Amino acid sequence: MSQQGYVATPPYSQAQPGMGGYPAGFGSSPAQPLYGHYGGQPQSFPAPPTGKATFLWSLIPPVKSSVYVLKVVHTPPTYPAGPGPMQNPQASPTSPPAQQPFQTAPPPTMGQTTLGPPPTGPHSPQMAPPQSPLAGPSMGGHPSMGGHPSMGGHPSMGGHPSMGGHPPMGGMGRPVPGPPPPGSGGFQQPGPGAAGQPGYPQQPQGTESAVTCGSVMITAKLYGFIGPVSWSQMKPIPGIKHVTEDDQAKRGGQVYTTNLRGQVPPLVTTDFTVQDQGNASPRFMRCTTYSFPCTADLAKQCQVPLGAIIKPFATVPKNETPLYFVNHGETGPIRCNRCKAYMCPYMQFIDGGRRYQCGFCNCVNEVPAFYFQHLDHMGRRVDLYERPELSLGSYEFEATLDYCKNNKPASPPAYIFMIDVSYANIKSGLVRLICEELKTLLDNLPREDGAESSTVKVGFVTYNKILHFYNVKSALAQPQMMVVSDTAEMFVPLLDGFLVNFQESRAVINNLLDQIPDMFADTNESETVFAPVIQAGVEALKTAECSGKLFIFHSSIPTAEAPGKLKNRDDKKLINTEKEKTLFQPQKGVYEQLSKDCVSQGCSVDLFLFPSQYVDLATMGDVPTHTGGSIFKYSNFQVYTNSNHFLSDLRKDVEKAIGFDAIMRVRTSTGFRATNFFGAIHMNNTTDVEMAAVDCDKAVTVEFKHDDKLSEETGALMQCALLYTTVNGQRRLRIHNLSLNCSAQLSELYKSCETDALINFFAKSAYRAMLNQPLKTVREILVNQTAHMLACYRKNCSSPSAASQLILPDAMKVFPVYLNSLMKTGPLVGSADLSTDDRAHQRLIATAMGVEDTQLLLYPRLIPLHNMDVASDVVPAPVRCSEERLTDAGMFLLENGRSLFLWLGQACPPELVQRVFNVPSFAHLPADLSSLPVLDNPQSKKLRSIIDSLLDQRPSAMKLLIVKQKDRSEMLFRQHLVEDKGPYGGASYMDFLCYVHCEIRQVLT
Ligand SMILES: [Zn+2]
pTM for the full model? Predict the structure, then answer.
């Protein structure tokens, strides 16, 4: 960071006392959480600035918490007096213009005073005064943990002798004592009280530096520049590139040891190794802040959301230890009698080891006789390091019959492949492609580590207006088809032979897969059903008494007469009106009931869509997004151009690590509680998160609220317990524990923020809110909350400075980039040029994304390739996502986890074009190029290897789009240059930063 002139506190300069006596390895920075709430008094905001802005930086001397200081210099607007960024062309004439950010009204004229903030500070300080020292780190040691020698491997745990303690009563479902949950959080209407308070110290007014929102007037020459200055000429405004590179430089390649409470992990973009020493790896759990505010008032004041993003099945890299498995035999896991929390490092043993006090509810419990162990002179159990559940953040328990449905052992899950064989899919060759692929793919069904073959059963259905089930019992010479034409009352016509072991029935199944494309070769049926297909899958799993997953390959809107029939309701006229939200609301009724049926059976639905037109994805995607499923979409599918993309997705999807019939519960220590959940989940009550399946890429975002005061001494503890069925049919509990700091100082909270996690929370809450509120309101709330978070920091944590300076907490300095990008995403941008299904799709998939995925989605990687060192294995460093970084003679790769582009400048050197594409020059490149030729030269090899490694890292496959500068397809590419003005609406990063700055000043006045 330093080379950019940023001033940052060394994040680990203050070792945390942490959990009793650990060496200060990775000293945590004292956490400073933010709490943001979509609530708070609506502020009255002026119009966004439309003027071209320039920023000057000044730096403050290093202090404990680093702060950015920007001087904002607005030059007069250069746009025509048109609408501002993110305008809303159809804004209701009745809405009070002054309160709407992104409004359509032209910018206020110069010198307008009604909307502008008060006179601002002196223009003089090039250097801001030093910041007042922040309060010291929270000193809360953690009583329950003892010192920890550096842990080599962990001895695995055996079973357990005699003496059942008391077995758990029932499932995981005991409600935590405490007051009833508050109303759901998120985008709701604000109560009073969050408004910025008066009393922010006014700076002496300087004449030239008066910066008013929207239209202002500080000339650059004031700061020694002549005329308008572009920002690239000056010190850069906070950029994600620098932040990620700095973190990589500081923490990359290191071991991150989780022994300290409240320590902020490296960024998701940083390459690090995790060693579990009492807290869950950040791969499993990340928080928006690692220091919660002690009181609800503080939380409300700063409006930083308190959230955790939990990815319970996150992939653990090969060089990290997989989760240990604990088996307490018939007794089952040991749990607190009162709150039902599972045995973990936060339980404190007392009374010579005969009792333990629960770290979550403080209840004192008897230690079951079989579990008794003596304590050492430090009060720690002498077997501490032999028991994963006493010393690790994450581990698994064997679940007893009490944790199984109807007290019966679970069965291995089944995968049912359901292929739409209507005219379009036969004609396109898709059906044949799928059938061919399945013949080999089914050898790769998920299996337990070390198992020779998978126990997952498979079944096959084809359908158009009616359904065809297949008996593929191994004893048969030929598969048998059974037709169900009454789709209103779906049933499964065969019990035996529908779900089989692939290895045993391979011959019959291959025979079937050979026959299917021919059986329907002459079909002219173009109508399809959809809900009955899902119903059939659930019924089949019910009959087989197992959980599982449906893989549905479908092409068109289901218009055939049957339950769940849909019609085209894509009305572009609704865009930017109050009713736009209806485009994203699923048609309820049949689909809502289906989701419930699926979840109660542990039936996850993965939908592969191949539409050539609108399919009402908002509704068709409803069941997948409530059952832990995924939605893949291949518009205008052609075997020739799209096969690789689709088949890569299908392979990853079939093979990935997954758990079934899951129920998750997040327990917390006293004083706060999980109140709101986002993900591909279903909730029957306020606490139990049900997931028909959860795979290695799915995350659940949880919001926490206070219900009492938190203590700095004991911190904030959370335990996520996930009960699920393995691919082997075993019932298990996966436990993730995390301990955070608490502080009465807001500065602590801001210092421990994690911007990547924060934007994940904002994205999910905004995408949910858009189902109930106009997009304009959702965008306003986003900006409003951001302004509040930043204003609160400025007011309470930074030293007085000129109002013209934009001050950002170090840990949140790039938050505005992400937020601006979020507001320009398809779902939130409100443009008739975007397909409704695409917008709905993006909204739904983001709902289950983890922090890595939202980070990349909102800030794509733009990698320059024209100067790459072909001799090196290193991928060239990404550059800022802005058109300014493109050069006519350049070649760039851009990817965001969903899309992958190779952009070529018009003046791209012919030699490079020749080596990569095997054509003599840019002009010779065919327009519809969609893949790279395999050529035997270093440039071609290097480029293909970069692309392959990117594809390998991402949860879903991406189709490479080759874009020539100035071609029509460039628009698709440009919408990902998120620092620029959006082609479908939305401000540039610079303009947005100006806008946020004005909003902050509004809050402060
Ligand atoms: Zn308890």
Answer: 0.81
